[in-house]
Structures are given as structure tokens and as C-alpha cells.
């Protein structure tokens, strides 16, 4: 399998999951401005829309949406428990988290990352994102991870997104700073996830350690 990624982007989540599972995945870095792979190929041949992550299977099929890629990887080794079994209520809970992270957190950051273009919209978008983080804070009561005691692909996704609110190179130029003030459970969760060997490995490989 090949995982197409842009360092520090949402593709960090499947990168972490591949490490968690010890999967034989070849990482292919994409230049997001030129839409070129490291080998010089046109990334739009893989994803015509130009965004990462994309997961190319050994038979040539490509998955192009992060939430699906995360679940596909988890299902390669179901015994690791990174996603609950299909057909269970817990699986729908995981999908609820992934959909929430995709639409409310992931895309909630976008106006902040494009703040100079978005202008005053940031004033509306940032409180909405902070409100959603406050909701996550409440969900983490009595839990180590989003789904409970077990780390799942949803934690990998939230970790990749939450890093945007912490990274100095993003927060100094853009208006994407999301502080942990008043969010002690989220802060502890972030430290817990960051300490995982799979995460350290992914951060190191993407030059973010
Ligand atoms: N719908 C996609 C969106 C993925 C996405 O927003 N990827 C961003 C990085 S986090 C990207 O590749 N942006 C560069 C571009 O769109 O050219 C998903 O949920 O996986």
C-alpha cells in the first residue's frame, strides 16, 4: 500500500494508524503547491482533487477520504481494536466521531488557516471551533481516549487536527491558535496521544518532532 501525505496535514492521522498497526505502507510525500510527488509524478493522477490523504492499494484502487482510509487501515488488523467491529453500536459511535471531526473540527480550522482571505469570518469561525473543542472536553470526562479506554483511529484524526492549533509556524502567521486554557482533559489527552511510539515515529518522519 502507498499513503500519499503532506507533512503536518490531516494525513498525519493515517500515518499514525499505519505505525500503530505495523503495516507495510510506503509513504509518498506530496508537494501541495505543485501537486507533485517526490518522484516528480502528477499527484492529480492519484487524486484529481489534489488533496491528501490518499491510500493506494496493491491492486491499484485508491481511497481518497481520510475517514474511510482510517477505517480501512484499522480493518486490516481488527484484532488491534483501532475500530470496533462492523455492525456494532460502537462502530457507529466511531463513525459519528469521524464525521464530527471531519465536518466540525477539520473544516472548522479552514477559515482560520486562510484567515487573511477569510477576513472577518474568522471572528465567527473561531468561537464555533472553540465551542466544539469544549464539547470534546466534556466527552473526555472519565475517559483516556475519545471512545473510552481504547485508543482508536478517531484519536489519531483529532491529534493531527489539534496539532494545527498548537504549531507556532501556523499560529504565528495564521489565526489558528487554539489554546488548552480551560481544557485540562484535552491537554492531558493530547500529551497521552503524543507520547505513543506510533505518534513519535510519524512526527519524526514528517520532520515535526
Ligand atoms: N475530504 C478530504 C479533505 C482532505 C483535506 O482537506 N486535505 C488537505 C490537508 S489537511 C489538503 O490536502 N489540502 C491541499 C489541497 O487541497 O490542495 C478528507 O476528509 O480526507
Written account of the structure:
The chain has helices at 12-21, 66-76, 89-113, 115-118, 121-139, 153-164, 168-171, 184-194, 197-205; strands at 2-5, 26-31, 36-37, 54-56, 62-63. The chain has 209 residues and is α+β, with helices and mostly antiparallel strands. The protein folds into 2 domains: 2-80, Glutaredoxin (3-Layer(aba) Sandwich); 89-196, Glutathione S-transferase Yfyf (Class Pi), Chain A, domain 2 (Up-down Bundle). A 5-stranded mixed β-sheet has the order 3-2-1-4-5. Helix 1 runs parallel beside helix 2 (66-76) and helix 3 runs parallel beside helix 6 (153-164). The longest helix is centred in the middle third of the chain and has 25 residues, at 89-113. It starts with a strand and ends with a helix. Bound molecules: glutathione. Glutathione binds at residues 6, 9-10, 32, 50-52, 65-66, 102.
Which SSEs are present, and which pair or pack?
Elements: E1 2-5, H1 12-21, E2 26-31, E3 36-37, E4 54-56, E5 62-63, H2 66-76, H3 89-113, H4 115-118, H5 121-139, H6 153-164, H7 168-171, H8 184-194, H9 197-205
Parallel strand pairs: 1-2
Antiparallel strand pairs: 1-4, 2-3, 4-5
Helix pairs in contact: 1-2, 1-6, 1-9, 3-5, 3-6
The chain binds glutathione.
Glutathione binds at residues 6, 9-10, 32, 50-52, 65-66, 102.
CATH C-level label of the largest domain = Mainly Alpha
Q: How many angstroms does the end-to-end distance come to?
A: 25 Å
Instruction: Identify low-pLDDT runs.
Output: none
Global structural class: alpha+beta
> How many strands in all?
5
What overall form do the CA principal axes indicate?
globular
Q: pLDDT average, as an integer?
A: 94
Main pleated-sheet profile? 5 strands, mixed
Ligand roster:
glutathione
CATH architecture title of the largest domain: Up-down Bundle
| Order of SSEs | EHEEEEHHHHHHHH
The tally of structural domains comes to: 2
* Count, helices: 9
Q: Could you state the oligomeric state of the chains shown?
A: single chain
Gyration radius, rounded: 17 Å
Looking across the biggest beta sheet, what order are the strands in? 3-2-1-4-5
Helix content: 40-55%
The amount of beta strand, in percent, is 5-15%
Amino acid at each position: 500500500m502507498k499513503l500519499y501525505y503532506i507533512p503536518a496535514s490531516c494525513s498525519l492521522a493515517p500515518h499514525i494508524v499505519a505505525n500503530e498497526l505495523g503495516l507495510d505502507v510506503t509513504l509518498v510525500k506530496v508537494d501541495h503547491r505543485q501537486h507533485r510527488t517526490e518522484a516528480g509524478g502528477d499527484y492529480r493522477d492519484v487524486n484529481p482533487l489534489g488533496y491528501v490523504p490518499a491510500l493506494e492499494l496493491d491492486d491499484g484502487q485508491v481511497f481518497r477520504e481520510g475517514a474511510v482510509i482510517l477505517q480501512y487501515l484499522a480493518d486490516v488488523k481488527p484484532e488491534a481494536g483501532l475500530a470496533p467491529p462492523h455492525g456494532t453500536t460502537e462502530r457507529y459511535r466511531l463513525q459519528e466521531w469521524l464525521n464530527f471531526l471531519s465536518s466540525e473540527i477539520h473544516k472548522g480550522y479552514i477559515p482560520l488557516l486562510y484567515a487573511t482571505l477569510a477576513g472577518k469570518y474568522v471572528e465567527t469561525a473561531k468561537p464555533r471551533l472553540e465551542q466544539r473543542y469544549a464539547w470534546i472536553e466534556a466527552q473526555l470526562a472519565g475517559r483516556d481516549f475519545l471512545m473510552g479506554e481504547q485508543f482508536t483511529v478517531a484519536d489519531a484524526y483529532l491529534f493531527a487536527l489539534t496539532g494545527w492549533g498548537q504549531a507556532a509556524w501556523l499560529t504565528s502567521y495564521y489565526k489558528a491558535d487554539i489554546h488548552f486554557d480551560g481544557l485540562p482533559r484535552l491537554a492531558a489527552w493530547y500529551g497521552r496521544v503524543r507520547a505513543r511510539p506510533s505518534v513519535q515515529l510519524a512526527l519524526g518522519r514528517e520532520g515535526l518532532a
